[in-house]
Design goal:
By secondary structure, the protein is of the alpha+beta class. The protein has helices at residues 9-18, 73-80, 137-150, 195-201; strands at residues 2-5, 24-30, 33-39, 45-52, 58-60, 67-72, 88-94, 97-103, 107-113, 131-136, 153-158, 163-168, 172-177, 183-186, 189-194, 210-215, 221-227, 230-236. The chain folds into two domains: 2-113, Box (Proliferating Cell Nuclear Antigen); 131-236, DNA Polymerase III, Chain A, domain 2 (Roll). It contains four helices and 18 strands.
Length: 244
C-alpha cells in the first residue's frame, strides 16, 4: 500500500477533529478510498469520514484488497502537525508499522506502530430523518457556543419555516434561523442533545463551510460536514431527561 496526498491539510484536520471523540480506531483503505467508522467509549456517538481514492495523487493498493490499520489518533495527529503549507504526505504500510513521509524543502520520515483495536465492526446507520436543515457552519458553531454558556444540553426544533437552537435553565440562549440563508425540509420536530458532544462535533467546521443537520423527534441525529468529495459525519443519541 502506498498513498500520496499533495495537500494533506484536510486529512490532518479530519484526524484532529476525530481525535477529540475517539483515541484508537481502525482506518480502512480499499478501492473506494480511505474510510473510518468509530464509536466513542460511552457508545453515545459515532463518527465517520471518507476520502475518495481520486483525491490521492498516488493510490497503490493490491487489487481487491482492503488494508485495516489500527491507529492511535493522538500519535497520528502529532505527526500530521509537522505538515506545513506546501508539504506532501506519503503513507505506506510496512509490516506492523505505518510509514509517513512528509516532503517539502526536506524529506522527513516517521514510523507509527500499528495496534490491535478491540470492539465490534460498525457501520454508520442509515435512517430516514423528518427534519433536514442545511446552513452555514459558522452560524451553527456560534449557536452551539451560545448554548454552552448557559447549559449542558440544547434543543433542536424545526418546522417548515424555521429552525431553532435553544438552551434553557436558570439562564437561556436561543437562535432562530429562517429565510434565504438556510434550507429547511421539515415536519414539526424537536429533540434534545448533549452540548459536551456537540462542542466536539462543531470542530468539523474547520473543513466545511456548510453543515447538514438531520434529526427527528427524540431520535439520534446526524451531522454532515461535506467538503468537495470528502465527507465527515457524526451521529449522536438524544438526551432523554429523566422524570422524578
Amino acid at each position: 500500500m502506498k498513498l500520496k496526498l499533495d495537500d494533506p491539510r484536510v486529512f490532518a484536520n479530519l484526524v484532529g477533529v476525530i481525535s477529540e471523540l475517539v483515541t484508537e480506531v481502525r482506518l480502512k483503505v480499499n478501492s473506494s478510498g480511505m474510510n473510518l467508522v468509530a464509536t466513542d467509549p460511552a457508545s453515545v456517538a459515532m463518527v465517520h469520514f471518507h476520502i475518495p481514492s481520486e483525491l490521492f495523487s498516488e493510490f497503490q493498493l493490491d487489487e481487491g484488497k482492503e488494508e485495516v490499520l489500527g491507529i492511535n489518533l493522538g500519535n497520528l495527529k502529532n505527526i500530521l502537525r509537522r505538515c506545513k503549507l506546501g508539504s506532501s504526505l506519503i503513507i505506506e504500510k510496512a509490516d506492523n508499522f505505518l510509514k509517513l513521509g512528509i516532503k517539502d524543502k526536506i524529506k522527513r520520515d516517521f514510523t507509527l506502530a500499528l495496534i490491535e483495536v478491540e470492539g465490534e465492526e460498525r457501520e454508520l446507520p442509515e435512517w430516514e430523518f423528518k427534519s433536514i436543515v442545511k446552513m452555514s457552519s459558522d452560524k451553527f458553531v456560534d449557536s452551539i457556543e451560545d448554548c454552552m454558556v448557559v447549559s449542558d444540553a440544547c434543543t433542536f426544533a424545526a418546522d417548515s419555516d424555521k429552525f431553532v437552537i435553544e438552551a434553557k435553565g436558570l439562564n437561556s440562549a436561543r437562535s432562530e434561523f429562517s429565510g434565504e440563508d438556510i434550507e429547511i425540509f421539515s415536519d414539526n420536530n424537536i429533540s434534545r442533545f448533549s452540548l459536551e458532544y456537540l462542542s466536539k462535533f462543531i470542530k468539523g467546521a474547520k473543513i466545511a463551510d456548510r453543515v447538514e443537520i438531520n434529526f427527528s423527534d427524540n431520535h439520534p441525529m446526524r451531522l454532515n460536514f461535506p467538503t468537495g468529495k470528502v465527507m465527515l459525519s457524526f451521529v449522536l443519541a438524544p438526551r432523554i431527561e429523566q422524570e422524578d
